[in-house]
Specification:
Elements lengths: L2 H6 L2 E6 L4 E6 L5 E7 L17 H18 L5 E4 L14 E2 L4 H5 L3 E4 L5 E4 L3 E3 L5 E3 L2 H9 L6 E6 L4 E7 L2 E8 L1 H11 L14 H10 L9 H4 L2 H7 L8 H20 L6 E4 L3 H13 L5 E3 L3 H12 L5
Helix pairs in contact: 4-11, 6-9, 6-10, 9-10
Length: about 325
């Protein structure tokens, strides 16, 4: 790192999840100077002597290996992290905050952790929605805050497709409600551990026709039987020759996403002005297709939501100007 780069480093930020650790180095204008990615999520930290007795040592070792040179070259730069690093299984638990709330309140509740490296790590808390069926998120709140820098609508519905898809309602800049759908994890379990996967074959490219066929089921009369009944059609359509083995996984994906979005549509008492998506481009494309099929939208996609959210939280917390 050059002397100028050292002087320019205003913030070191971490997106520290279950399976990966992503690092960002910002200048004083909030521009990312450098990005790094490592496989050291909280469940697969590097082997560290003494970590069995003191888990903090493994987190410290991962941080040092990931961006120790940044820390050494910019001793005045604050350090912030979001994600599962603040969970019970993380470095130290950052307590959940109850919704509804605004981004500024999240920033005021950062948890300060002594890294043992001469630096304090500021961990972003997760969010809790108390109800008959409680809901939680950790990490997504930072992406939402980043997206809100790009979208200024009074009413927003923000989707974060993934293993546990989140749908978050934002009113006047405040996070007021969210729902979780375990669509991605259920898809993985069905394809890998049930009879449905026995007849599936890998495809060379995504099959949009099969995907949309599955997505249309949820809105049909047959869809009223529910997802637990409908998923068996992935097998029976194959047995009757109506669905090729290479198309069955895409059909199942469309079926599950279709039921997720159909449920979301039925739950929404008032359609927001905009629906925003945050996440993997390929997955967001599939969600956009189903949203348009169901007449929901307009739909936008956020860019670099995590890094923008980390910078925004650091600003609100007074860590950077």
């Amino acid at each position: 790192m050059t002397v100028k780069e050292q002087d320019d480093c205003a913030l070191i930020a971490l997106d520290w999840g279950t399976s990966s650790l992503r690092c960002y180095r910002f200048d004083a204008a909030g521009t990312v100077l450098e990005r790094r990615a490592h496989p050291w999520g909280i469940m697969q930290l590097p082997a560290t002597e003494g970590a069995a007795q003191n888990p903090h040592l493994a987190f410290r070792a991962a941080l040092q290996a990931a961006c120790g040179d940044w820390l050494a070259a910019a001793p005045g730069a604050p350090l912030i992290a979001a994600g599962m690093v603040g969970s019970k299984q993380g470095w130290q638990e950052a307590s959940y905050l109850n919704v509804p709330l605004a981004p500024e309140r999240i920033a005021r509740k950062l948890l300060a952790v002594d890294t043992g490296l001469g630096r304090t790590l500021h961990i972003v808390p997760g969010l809790l929605q108390m109800s008959t069926l409680p809901n939680v998120m950790r990490g997504e709140e930072t992406q939402i805050i980043g997206a809100l820098r790009q979208w200024r609508d009074d009413e927003l519905l923000i989707g974060l497709p993934g293993t546990h898809s989140k749908w978050v309602r934002v009113t006047n800049g405040r996070i007021v409600h969210f729902d979780t759908f375990m669509t991605g994890e259920v898809y993985g379990a069905l394809t890998a551990h049930t009879i449905l996967g026995r007849t599936m074959q890998a495809a060379d490219a995504p099959d949009d026709e099969a995907f949309m066929r599955g997505a249309r089921v949820a809105q049909s009369l047959d869809g009223q039987a529910g997802v637990l009944s409908n998923i068996f059609s992935c097998r029976t359509l194959g047995l009757t020759g109506e669905l090729a083995p290479q198309a069955q996984a895409d059909y199942l994906s469309g079926l599950l996403i279709g039921h997720e979005l159909n449920a979301l549509k039925q739950m929404a008492l008032q359609q927001p002005q905009r629906i925003g998506l945050i996440g993997d481009a390929g997955l967001c494309r599939r969600y956009r297709l189903v949203l348009e099929l169901y007449g929901m939208g307009p739909v936008s996609e956020a860019d670099a939501a995590t890094e923008i959210g980390l910078w925004s939280l650091a600003q609100h917390a007074g860590l950077v100007a």
